[in-house]
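Milestone 3.1: sequence recovery, worked example.
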């Protein structure tokens, strides 16, 4: 009897350790470790030549989105977006240690690219025509869809955006999510980051948080037992790598890197080392070399 009880207790202890490590793992593990190209050559004057010669690149990403871009214990971010950034750097001959990671939130991605604060942005960044007026995009390298995050058990019985009329919802300024939700409710609390929407959801100030399903899945996983994703995506959000507008050679180069990663398994490896800890592995999308 005593032994049984002991076993049960250690089983519970082990389960919580596994759950805990599962949670931190999905954010903290990185390292799909793409091979770094040795002394690659590029046409003089191109962005590739400039970055490769400098031996460093500045990449904008999210710092608070588990699975895609989450600041790890050593200060550098981890996640699928981060791994995609490392794949691009590797083909320029730049080691992960020589990447400077800069936090970008939804609203400052275009200005950070335009004013040269970052060389590229890999940050759950939807490719769309409005943004293409000021920046260019390689990709897509993933396709997400907008969804809703509610309290566990769904106390408000929300089945989709149609149920949000007159209700308060949290989203983020400068995101497609904030725009896409406007037809359903005028009561939108615009935060700077999605993680800052969780407090208002917990307190009942809003009934839902809305953005891409994979961002919401990461937040739900990070706060196990508190929230659930409806899992009824109602938009298409093709993720691109943002770069300076009309840098056609650089865009073509990044598209080549992505295409190769789709084929040689490094894309899938990057997924499995990060978002794949929680989500099943998708098929790579079709590139849009516009
Ligand atoms: N993918 C959407 C966007 O680029 C929502 C996620 C985000 O804000 O990063 O606006």
């Amino acid at each position: 009897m005593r032994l049984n009880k002991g076993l049960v207790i250690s089983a519970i202890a082990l389960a919580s350790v596994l759950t805990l490590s599962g949670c931190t793992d999905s954010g903290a593990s990185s390292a799909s470790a793409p091979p770094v190209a040795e002394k690659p050559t590029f046409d003089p004057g191109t962005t590739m030549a400039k970055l490769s010669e400098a031996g460093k690149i500045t990449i904008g990403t999210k710092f608070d989105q588990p699975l895609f871009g989450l600041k790890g214990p050593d200060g550098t971010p981890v996640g699928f977006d981060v791994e995609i950034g490392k794949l691009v750097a590797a083909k320029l001959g730049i080691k992960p240690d020589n990447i400077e990671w800069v936090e970008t939130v939804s609203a400052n991605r275009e200005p950070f690219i335009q004013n040269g604060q970052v060389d590229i942005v890999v940050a759950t960044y939807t490719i769309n025509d409005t943004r293409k007026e000021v920046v260019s995009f390689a990709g897509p390298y993933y396709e997400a869809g907008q969804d809703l995050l509610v309290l566990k058990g769904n106390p408000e019985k929300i089945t989709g955006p149609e149920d949000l009329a007159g209700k308060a919802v949290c989203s983020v300024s400068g995101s497609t999510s904030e725009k896409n939700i406007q037809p359903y409710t005028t009561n939108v609390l615009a935060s700077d980051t999605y993680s800052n929407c969780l407090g208002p959801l917990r307190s009942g100030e809003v009934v839902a948080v809305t953005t891409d399903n994979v961002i919401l899945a990461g937040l739900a996983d990070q706060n196990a037992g508190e929230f659930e994703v409806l899992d009824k995506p109602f938009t298409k959000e093709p993720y691109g790598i943002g770069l300076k507008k009309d840098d056609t050679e650089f865009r073509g180069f990044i598209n080549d890197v992505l295409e190769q990663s789709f084929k040689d398994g490094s894309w899938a490896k990057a997924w499995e080392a990060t978002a794949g800890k929680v989500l099943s592995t998708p098929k790579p999308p079709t590139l849009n070399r516009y």
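Residues 106, 123-126, 172, 175-177, 211-212, 215, 237 surround glutamic acid (CB under 6 Å). The chain has two domains: 11-144+236-277, 146-229.
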